[in-house]
Description:
The complex is a heterodimer. Chain A is 30% helix and 24% strand. Chain A has 7 helices and 10 strands. In chain A, the strands form 2 sheets. In chain A, strands 6-7-8-3-9-10 form a 6-stranded mixed sheet, with helices on both faces. Chain A has a 4-stranded antiparallel sheet with strand order 2-1-4-5, with helices on one face. The longest helix of chain A has 16 residues, at 192-207. Chain B is built from 10 helices and 4 strands. The A-B interface holds A 71, 73, 93-94, 97-98, 100-103, 105, 111, 113-116, 120, 124-125, 127-129, 172 and B 13-15, 18, 205-206, 209-217, 219, 299, 302. The complex binds adenosine-5'-triphosphate and magnesium ion. Magnesium ion is lined by residues 63-64, 108, 184 of chain A.
Amino acid sequence: xxxxxxxxxxxxxxxxxxxxxxxxxxxxxxxxxxxxxxxxxxxxxxxxxxxxxxxxxxxxxxxxxxxxxxxxxxxxxxxxxxxxxxxxxxxxxxxxxxxxxxxxxxxxxxxxxxxxxxxxxxxxxxxxxxxxxxxxxxxxxxxxxxxxxxxxxxxxxxxxxxxxxxxxxxxxxxxxxxxxxxxxxxxxxxxxxxxxxxxxxxxxxxxxxxxxxxxxxxxxxxxxxxxxxxxxxxxxxxxxxxx
Amino acid sequence: xxxxxxxxxxxxxxxxxxxxxxxxxxxxxxxxxxxxxxxxxxxxxxxxxxxxxxxxxxxxxxxxxxxxxxxxxxxxxxxxxxxxxxxxxxxxxxxxxxxxxxxxxxxxxxxxxxxxxxxxxxxxxxxxxxxxxxxxxxxxxxxxxxxxxxxxxxxxxxxxxxxxxxxxxxxxxxxxxxxxxxxxxxxxxxxxxxxxxxxxxxxxxxxxxxxxxxxxxxxxxxxxxxxxxxxxxxxxxxxxxxxxxxxxxxxxxxxxxxxxxxxxxxxxxxxxxxxxxxxxxxxxxxxxxxxxxxxxxxxxxx
Lengths: 243, 302
Ligand SMILES: Nc1ncnc2c1ncn2[C@@H]1O[C@H](COP(=O)(O)OP(=O)(O)OP(=O)(O)O)[C@@H](O)[C@H]1O
Ligand SMILES: [Mg+2]
């Protein structure tokens, strides 16, 4: 489909990510937004290093909220969230930033910076990690080609279709070769053909050792892969996740 | 400003330059720089004038021989002037004593008395320029007393009172102008604080995204500091150019009579350093203020 392949290569981080360790561990976690009701209740599960999980459940069940806890955008209202073996509630601000740099997130609403070109959006995590220079630039353009948007590298997000924006968001999540990739509905805006391509890209990352969690309700896609599921309904865990 | 939008800064992820408040910043800073530059020019002028006068006066003394009621016309005044000259030339510690020619005196007084005269019937005092020199050094106070005794109507002026008052005046001026500059710096900092806080509010979502991608607070702070630095540099250069234009225009407007009492303003190395230092200081104040404001605000709201 595309001659250019994204070389996953050696990872830059990787401390404490040997297979068998838990990358993520939830213990009796509850979560609420501000003073609202609990949107997650008594959630316990673990995600082993190097695994690939689908996070499923009906709309409004709490998938995005669960992911927000994992990338430290929210704190649990009770229970414990461990990421890379660290209890997140007690982490000082600086270390929160360091943990986040090891996580690549595909946001459900993409969250691209509208004033930056596709290329600059994809390069953003590298800049934040202090990784500049021509090697980084080359990696950015290579990855943009891999998601099939080579001609759109210098275009602003506003000029891209929903599916194209989604693919730029995915490229941004993968550019630093993070230890953990959290993808929130990464195939929602694309047809099944591109959706399969995206999942194969994540598969390739997984094979190189990256831990992957994909939230989706696309049963068709899930059924083509043999990966374990974590299923939540109405804020509670109903299936999977080896507590 | 236009230039700022034409050259998007590759170091800045947040679209800060497009904010209305950010576009305002170079203009305010230009205004502040203009005021500060004019204030500094005033200081430079006064201290140059002060040291110019000090230099030309500190080695010099003036003896004034005044007409007395008892004088029978110019001849008596002339005789007393000769006596004073003879007295002075005999003193140790005096290198030279020369009468100031009458024409020079008239020229000196011209701006005040007018060219046409009125000086005609007025008997002007005679002046003697005295230059110090030789051993032992001159004791001006003792000399003044002996001179007054030897030659009636002769008075020695060593300009010390006048110089002291001049020095005091210049010191006060410098303090006032420095105070004004401190106030200008404070006003600039307050403006940058306001602009930065507004920017943080406008770009709340984008800053949250940077945080989620692993940026720490200082990464965000650097973006605001760079933006404020660029705005300050543009503003400072514009303000400096305006101030230079104003000073040149003033120089052209000011008449030769007023120029005569000011020393020749040849720019010194110090002036050149000031011209470079002012925009740099303004950039440093602006960027530093933006940086600190971001760190403080983020630590408080998150
Ligand atoms: N920012 C928020 N503030 C308050 N409540 C929220 C917020 N975001 C989500 N919720 C609530 O939390 C619950 C779970 O929402 P969440 O977005 O996690 O569901 P989801 O499983 O991702 O749904 P979808 O499949 O539609 O994306 C919902 O009841 C929702 O109304
Ligand atoms: Mg969701």
